[in-house]
Specification:
By secondary structure, the chain is mostly helical. The chain has one domain. The protein contains seven helices and no strands.
Length: 171
Amino acid sequence: MFVFGHIGLTLLAFYLAEQWLPRLQGKVNYGFVAIGALLPDLIDKPLGRFLLADTLASGRIFAHTLSFWILVGLIIVLIWQKWRADFLLVLPGAAVLHLLEDSMWQTPEVLFWPFLGWSFPADEIAGGFLDYLMHVFSNCYDPAISMVFISEVFGIVICMVGAVRWYSRVK
Protein backbone atom coordinates (compact mmCIF):
# COMPACT_ATOMS: atom_id res chain seq x y z
CA MET A 1 0.00 0.00 0.00
CA PHE A 2 1.18 3.51 -0.73
CA VAL A 3 0.59 6.85 0.99
CA PHE A 4 -3.07 7.55 0.18
CA GLY A 5 -4.16 3.96 0.79
CA HIS A 6 -2.74 4.06 4.30
CA ILE A 7 -4.02 7.54 5.07
CA GLY A 8 -7.49 7.08 3.55
CA LEU A 9 -8.27 3.68 5.06
CA THR A 10 -6.97 4.71 8.49
CA LEU A 11 -8.93 7.99 8.42
CA LEU A 12 -12.04 6.03 7.50
CA ALA A 13 -11.49 3.57 10.36
CA PHE A 14 -11.12 6.41 12.89
CA TYR A 15 -14.10 8.26 11.42
CA LEU A 16 -16.29 5.15 11.77
CA ALA A 17 -15.01 4.56 15.32
CA GLU A 18 -15.88 8.16 16.16
CA GLN A 19 -19.40 7.66 14.76
CA TRP A 20 -19.99 4.40 16.63
CA LEU A 21 -18.43 5.44 19.96
CA PRO A 22 -20.01 8.65 21.24
CA ARG A 23 -17.16 9.16 23.78
CA LEU A 24 -14.78 9.75 20.85
CA GLN A 25 -16.88 12.34 19.03
CA GLY A 26 -14.92 15.54 18.56
CA LYS A 27 -11.81 14.12 20.23
CA VAL A 28 -10.04 12.55 17.23
CA ASN A 29 -7.25 14.66 15.75
CA TYR A 30 -7.28 13.55 12.10
CA GLY A 31 -3.95 15.22 11.38
CA PHE A 32 -2.30 12.91 13.90
CA VAL A 33 -4.28 9.97 12.52
CA ALA A 34 -2.75 10.67 9.09
CA ILE A 35 0.75 10.94 10.59
CA GLY A 36 0.25 7.71 12.56
CA ALA A 37 -0.99 5.97 9.41
CA LEU A 38 2.35 6.68 7.72
CA LEU A 39 4.66 6.48 10.73
CA PRO A 40 5.79 2.84 10.31
CA ASP A 41 6.96 3.59 6.75
CA LEU A 42 8.40 6.99 7.70
CA ILE A 43 10.59 5.21 10.26
CA ASP A 44 11.41 1.93 8.51
CA LYS A 45 11.86 2.90 4.85
CA PRO A 46 14.75 5.33 5.47
CA LEU A 47 16.33 2.94 7.98
CA GLY A 48 15.94 -0.33 6.08
CA ARG A 49 16.23 0.90 2.51
CA PHE A 50 18.93 3.58 2.93
CA LEU A 51 20.84 3.65 6.22
CA LEU A 52 20.89 -0.10 6.91
CA ALA A 53 20.28 -1.34 3.36
CA ASP A 54 23.44 -3.47 3.30
CA THR A 55 22.54 -5.35 6.50
CA LEU A 56 18.73 -5.35 6.72
CA ALA A 57 17.62 -4.84 3.10
CA SER A 58 14.01 -4.34 4.08
CA GLY A 59 11.54 -1.51 4.45
CA ARG A 60 9.61 -3.42 7.10
CA ILE A 61 11.67 -3.65 10.25
CA PHE A 62 11.31 -2.18 13.77
CA ALA A 63 8.29 0.08 13.24
CA HIS A 64 6.39 -2.78 11.60
CA THR A 65 6.45 -4.80 14.84
CA LEU A 66 3.79 -4.98 17.54
CA SER A 67 6.41 -4.72 20.29
CA PHE A 68 7.57 -1.34 18.93
CA TRP A 69 4.04 0.08 18.98
CA ILE A 70 3.26 -1.36 22.40
CA LEU A 71 6.38 0.41 23.71
CA VAL A 72 5.43 3.65 21.91
CA GLY A 73 1.89 3.34 23.28
CA LEU A 74 3.20 2.99 26.85
CA ILE A 75 5.43 6.05 26.42
CA ILE A 76 2.50 8.05 25.03
CA VAL A 77 0.30 7.01 27.97
CA LEU A 78 3.01 8.28 30.34
CA ILE A 79 3.16 11.57 28.42
CA TRP A 80 -0.62 11.77 28.44
CA GLN A 81 -0.78 11.26 32.21
CA LYS A 82 1.55 14.19 32.77
CA TRP A 83 0.37 16.67 30.10
CA ARG A 84 -3.02 15.33 28.94
CA ALA A 85 -1.86 15.50 25.33
CA ASP A 86 -4.96 13.77 23.90
CA PHE A 87 -3.88 14.30 20.31
CA LEU A 88 -0.99 11.83 20.78
CA LEU A 89 -3.25 8.94 21.77
CA VAL A 90 -4.23 8.17 18.16
CA LEU A 91 -0.65 7.59 16.93
CA PRO A 92 -0.16 3.97 18.12
CA GLY A 93 -3.68 2.98 17.02
CA ALA A 94 -3.19 4.46 13.56
CA ALA A 95 0.21 2.78 13.28
CA VAL A 96 -1.23 -0.62 14.22
CA LEU A 97 -3.88 -0.16 11.52
CA HIS A 98 -0.96 0.44 9.13
CA LEU A 99 0.39 -2.98 10.12
CA LEU A 100 -2.99 -4.57 9.38
CA GLU A 101 -3.19 -2.76 6.02
CA ASP A 102 0.28 -4.13 5.19
CA SER A 103 -0.94 -7.69 6.02
CA MET A 104 1.92 -8.09 8.48
CA TRP A 105 0.42 -11.34 9.80
CA GLN A 106 1.86 -12.87 6.63
CA THR A 107 5.34 -12.08 7.99
CA PRO A 108 5.08 -13.16 11.64
CA GLU A 109 8.86 -12.96 12.20
CA VAL A 110 8.54 -9.19 11.67
CA LEU A 111 5.17 -8.64 13.34
CA PHE A 112 6.18 -10.53 16.51
CA TRP A 113 9.83 -9.48 16.56
CA PRO A 114 11.88 -10.20 18.73
CA PHE A 115 9.82 -13.14 20.06
CA LEU A 116 10.36 -15.25 16.91
CA GLY A 117 14.02 -14.29 16.46
CA TRP A 118 16.22 -11.23 16.32
CA SER A 119 16.70 -10.98 12.55
CA PHE A 120 14.41 -9.48 9.95
CA PRO A 121 13.79 -11.22 6.62
CA ALA A 122 15.12 -9.35 3.59
CA ASP A 123 12.56 -8.03 1.12
CA GLU A 124 12.01 -10.00 -2.06
CA ILE A 125 13.04 -6.88 -3.97
CA ALA A 126 16.75 -6.20 -3.64
CA GLY A 127 18.21 -2.72 -3.86
CA GLY A 128 17.13 0.67 -2.65
CA PHE A 129 13.84 2.49 -2.60
CA LEU A 130 14.02 3.43 -6.29
CA ASP A 131 14.46 -0.25 -7.21
CA TYR A 132 11.42 -1.05 -5.09
CA LEU A 133 9.27 1.59 -6.84
CA MET A 134 10.44 0.47 -10.29
CA HIS A 135 9.50 -3.11 -9.43
CA VAL A 136 6.03 -2.08 -8.26
CA PHE A 137 5.35 0.09 -11.32
CA SER A 138 6.67 -2.52 -13.77
CA ASN A 139 4.42 -5.19 -12.23
CA CYS A 140 1.27 -3.10 -11.85
CA TYR A 141 -0.83 -5.62 -13.78
CA ASP A 142 0.01 -8.37 -11.32
CA PRO A 143 -3.19 -8.90 -9.24
CA ALA A 144 -1.32 -8.50 -5.94
CA ILE A 145 0.22 -5.20 -7.05
CA SER A 146 -3.06 -4.09 -8.66
CA MET A 147 -4.67 -4.26 -5.21
CA VAL A 148 -2.10 -1.69 -4.09
CA PHE A 149 -3.34 0.69 -6.76
CA ILE A 150 -7.00 -0.04 -5.99
CA SER A 151 -6.43 0.75 -2.32
CA GLU A 152 -4.55 3.88 -3.35
CA VAL A 153 -7.48 5.12 -5.48
CA PHE A 154 -9.89 4.25 -2.67
CA GLY A 155 -7.68 6.18 -0.22
CA ILE A 156 -7.56 9.23 -2.51
CA VAL A 157 -11.37 9.22 -2.74
CA ILE A 158 -11.69 9.00 1.06
CA CYS A 159 -9.21 11.88 1.50
CA MET A 160 -11.07 14.01 -1.06
CA VAL A 161 -14.46 13.37 0.57
CA GLY A 162 -12.97 14.16 3.98
CA ALA A 163 -11.39 17.37 2.68
CA VAL A 164 -14.66 18.53 1.11
CA ARG A 165 -16.58 17.77 4.34
CA TRP A 166 -13.96 19.60 6.43
CA TYR A 167 -13.93 22.59 4.07
CA SER A 168 -17.73 22.84 4.08
CA ARG A 169 -17.75 22.92 7.91
CA VAL A 170 -15.02 25.55 8.09
CA LYS A 171 -16.79 27.95 5.70
